[in-house]
Amino acid sequence: EGRETRLRVVLRVRPLTCTETRRGDQQVVHSLGDGAVHVSAARHDATFGFSAVFDAGASQEAVFEGSGMRQLVELAMDGFSCTVFAFGQTGSGKTYTLMGPLAQSETRPAAPALLGLMQRSFTCLLEQSRSRGSDLALSASYLEIYNEQVRDLLSSGPPCALPLRWSKTRGFYVENQLSVEFESLEAIVSLLLQGSQRRRTSAHALNRHSSRSHALLTIHISSRAVSAHPAPGEGWGASACPSKQGTLCFVDLAGSERVKETGSSGELSVEANSINRSLLALGHCISLLAKSRGKRTHIPYRDSKLTRLLARSLGGSGVTLMVACISPSSHCLSETLSTLHYASRARRVTTRP
């Protein structure tokens, strides 16, 4: 608590797709072990280091255990503000890493082995709450940022824009967002799937089911430990220890790629430009935060809705995990290098939880 803590950054390299294999793409990203990857292609020869690297053969469970996600859940239960965000180009495996297969629904759930960080975290959270014996209140809110508008994915009716406010005590927050209480794994998974189906997606040249918005699902954890041994002067009823308010936020960022690569035009082009502007603002904030505290200038969180909502996670009092997702294909080399440089800068960012 209060100590300077670096962002934990892990890398996931997805397998080559059937399309990439048929096209004859070369594999240009190779894991070296001990958190290092090597990129070897014409005019490019570079090695990058991360807290952990998960290659194409890594299971969903291995990513959950090896990324430090279990510890993040425990910190959220202890009252910390915790965030995990997935970053990378469209089709690099961000949503799969967080949620598992896109085809799942309440009536057709995914196979247990394919479940992502979110469902595994929900299971861990509920198991921990039972084993700790704490009086726990859990609720969830689910938002998307689409074309610089914040929209509630859990409210009934068509999504409408919500105002983003700032206060000295709360920092940036979304006004009038819906928060839904839950007590079981089935209830929170149902909220996740309902909200995800309402999220804006489109087909383009890189992905038939591309996310066109940034999505933030936040679990609010309010705990009050109950003691069987009351302090002197208190009756034999259970006495309450100080309450803790923690959060666990999952951020699925929209794909980062050049508009010309997507073949987008019209409304899709507007969406892509909006996505890229917010990711550029996020990258700018990360670059400035990566400098030592004495050399930092003003951090421009207000440049986008995304950076405002991630301000606490990136440069404030949060504990943050970044999962960078890349393709090993030679066809995606430029976007892969961009993601690797972005993630490398993020490793130098520190917060004070």
TrEMBL record:
Principal location class: cytoplasm
Keywords: ATP-binding, Cytoplasm, Cytoskeleton, Microtubule, Motor protein, Nucleotide-binding
Localization per Swiss-Prot or TrEMBL: Cytoplasm, Cytoskeleton
InterPro entries: Kinesin-like_fam (IPR027640), Kinesin_motor_CS (IPR019821), Kinesin_motor_dom (IPR001752), Kinesin_motor_dom_sf (IPR036961), P-loop_NTPase (IPR027417)
Binding-site residues, ATP: 88-95
Listed GO biological process terms: microtubule-based movement; mitotic spindle organization; spindle elongation
SMART domains linked to this entry: KISc (SM00129)
Gene3D superfamilies associated with the record: Kinesin motor domain
Domain Kinesin motor: 6-349
GO molecular function annotation: ATP binding; microtubule binding; microtubule motor activity
Keyword presence, RNA-binding: no
GO CC annotations on file: microtubule; microtubule associated complex
The organism's place on the tree of life at top rank: Eukaryota
Family of this protein: Belongs to the TRAFAC class myosin-kinesin ATPase superfamily. Kinesin family.
Protein name: Kinesin-like protein
